[in-house]
Every structure is written in structure tokens, then in C-alpha cells.
Amino acid sequence: QVYLQESGPGLVKPSETLSLTCNVSGASIKSDVYYWSWIRQRPGKGLEYIGHIYKTGSTYYRPSLRGRVTISVDTSKNQFSLRLTSVTVADTAIYYCARAKGDFWGQGTLVKVSA
Amino acid sequence: DIVMTQSPDSLAVSLGERATINCKSSQSLFYSSNNMNYVAWYQHKPGQPPKLLLYWASIRESGVPDRFSGSGSGTDFTLTINSLQAEDVAIYYCQQFRDTPYTFGQGTRLEIE
Hints:
Chain A is an all-beta fold. Helices cover about 0% and strands about 50% of the residues of chain A.
């Protein structure tokens, strides 16, 4: 069984940087054939695909977030990370990490942007 | 971006009856090189992450009850839940993974009538 667990601050101030890490167990990022993704759900809204990364470091970012978002991978720690800069209240959401096939997800972590 | 539009937004179905949720994409999700439709269906309950039900439009994920089935091709897809159970109350999403960004439908809320 594959497990993913998000970690990071639950409260970020406006204009600052949101940083989350997803720890993967039960699968090896450097051996797996899948991409690893970040998805969010803003309050009262549906699911929004943020982007993904492959074990090689190749990335895709949602166009509306390009310039603010960075996804990185550390295969030695079997984890991948999300950085979102210059956050606003509109970035308040539950952030999920997931294997891009959609079969394994983290529980999700609520990040609130507030002063 | 490929737009995924689900219908209805919500529906109420009696226990033991059938629920049908539709998903329409703004572009074909069929990939001729492997004859597959790049669509997945998820079940999302409060406080839990989305659960993958079906991928390639109709392939049931391991462990998913066979009362869940998927059909369709091209731009029109359907999730059918037969013999509705109380634990099926959730929001259901379709997602396309034919082209980035891998967009989701707006969700369909399923309740018991």
C-alpha cells in the first residue's frame, strides 16, 4: 500500500510563501513510472490541479499559477514539495498531494492565508 | 484548458435505486494510439481525500464495488451507481487526463431521497 502525507504550516500570511512537503511511503518515487501531483480545493469549490513532477525533475504547472509555483522532488528522502509565493486569501485551500494516476492521495492539509 | 461539465449538479436517489451522473468534455478525450479515453471518476466524502473509482472511463479501480460502472467515449461519459447504498452519499467528480492541466468537473452531489 502506498501512503502519502502532507506537512507544512497551516497558516500563512498574505504575500508570504506557502511551503508544503509530501512524504511518500510504500512506493519509491525514483522507481515509479508515475508523476506526482499537487491538487487543491478552495472553500466551497471543486478540485483544482496545481501541477506535477516526475522523478527526473520534469514539471508541469497550471498556467494560472506559473511564476508563483514550484514543485520539487527529493528522491533520496522519497518526498516532493510545493512552494507557492506571494499568496493571497484566494490561495486558502485544502492542499492534497497524490500520485498522478489518482489512485493514492494524502489526507490533505488545510492552509489558511490570513494576517 | 479542457472544460469538464457534469450534470446534474446534485441528485437524490432512493436506496437500492440507480444513480446516473454525466460528464461532458469540451474536447475529445479519446486517444487513438491506444484506443483509450482519458477519463477518471472519483468519490469525495467530507474530511477524506478523493477516492479513485474508475479510470480509462470504465476500468474499475481495485477494491471498488461492481455496482460502480463507467461508460462513454470521446466527449460524453457516464458514471452509473447501481443499487445505491447509504455509504455512496458523496460528491462525485470526473477528471480528464488527456491534456494538461488535468481538469476536473465541478462535482455532482449525490444524496439519498
